[in-house]
Design a protein that fits this description.
- One of its GO terms (biological process) is glycolytic process.
- GO terms for molecular function: triose-phosphate isomerase activity.
- Pfam families: TIM.
- With 251 residues, the protein is of the alpha/beta class.
- It has a single domain, classed as TIM Barrel (Alpha-Beta Barrel), CATH 3.20.20.
- The protein contains eleven helices and eight strands.
- An eight-stranded parallel β-barrel has the order 1-2-3-4-5-6-7-8, surrounded by four helices.
- The longest helix is centred in the C-terminal third of the chain and has 18 residues.
- The radius of gyration is 17 Å and the shape is globular.
- Bound molecules: glyceraldehyde-3-phosphate.
- The site of glyceraldehyde-3-phosphate (G3H) has 14 residues, from strand 8.
Length: 251
């Protein structure tokens, strides 16, 4: 039976773009990015959230790339869920590998941020994934389970309808070394089975698990054919018109 899970493609623009660059991306998205079978969400830098929300088609969701675990206060440089909602955006990416490994965010902090974002009414793209040395040591599952468990510990079963899990092996991010469709499918399948046990069978079968790590217009079709790959979180290629081909990978 075909999956009931709606294909989801996120474009994570990371720390890229000026207003002119954002205009260019929005331009190709608005021209050709409508597919009722695909949920598309783009994540500009926080500076451009409001601008992007105002200019991109309303059928395209807009996500922040991060937010803090409380609503307001003396937290210089951070953004809150309330602010993200206030400018009309409904998603946030949390636990991205660059937050974990460049900025040193812990599993626990990411769990707490996820809890607060969901309570505040945002939907969450929750990222997990192992580093190269962890994969080579045979710890891929253990790392993904540990990172996901920290989120499970902070939320309720009913929250899972507002979460998309992004499996992003760190060794595949921005390196051109995509996980093969078989490697990604294996992790997604294992994680889904584990979620059935740790959360519930219904959450396991309904939650979307998307893949991220050097996804391109050239490899998206093969990745998208796998039954447990429910879409992509795209970095570099989301800045280019190739993104449209990735959105249409299953068309
Ligand atoms: O959030 C997106 C991922 O970090 C993937 O980035 P990438 O497509 O540039 O490898």
């Amino acid at each position: 039976m075909a999956s009931q899970r709606k294909f989801f493609v996120g474009g994570n623009w990371k720390l890229n773009g000026t207003k002119k660059g954002v205009d260019g991306i929005i331009d190709f998205i608005n021209k050709d990015c409508v597919d009722p079978n695909v949920e598309v969400v783009v994540a500009p830098s926080a500076i451009y959230l409001d601008y992007t929300r105002q200019k991109v088609n309303t059928s395209v969701g807009v996500a922040a790339q991060n937010c803090y675990k409380v609503g307001s206060g003396a937290f210089t440089g951070d953004n809150s869920a309330e602010m993200i909602k206030d400018v009309g955006c409904e998603w946030v990416i949390l636990g991205h590998s660059e937050r974990r490994h460049v900025f040193g965010e812990s599993d626990q902090l990411i769990g707490e941020k996820t809890q607060f974002a969901l309570k505040s009414g945002l939907k969450v793209i929750a990222c997990i994934g192992e580093k190269l040395d962890e994969r080579e040591a045979g710890h891929t599952e253990a790392v993904c389970f540990r990172q996901t468990q920290a989120i499970i510990d902070c939320i309720q079963e009913s929250d899972w309808g507002n979460i998309v899990i992004a499996y992003e092996p760190v060794w595949a991010i921005g390196t051109g070394k995509t996980a093969s469709p078989e490697q990604a499918q294996e992790v997604h399948d294992t994680l889904r089975k584990w979620l059935a046990d740790k959360v519930s069978p219904s959450v396991a079968s309904s939650v979307r698990i998307i893949y991220g790590g050097s996804v391109t217009a050239a490899n998206a079709k093969d990745l998208g054919k796998k039954p447990d790959i429910d879409g992509f979180l795209v970095g570099g290629a989301s800045l280019k018109p190739d993104f449209i081909q990735i959105v249409k990978a299953r068309a």
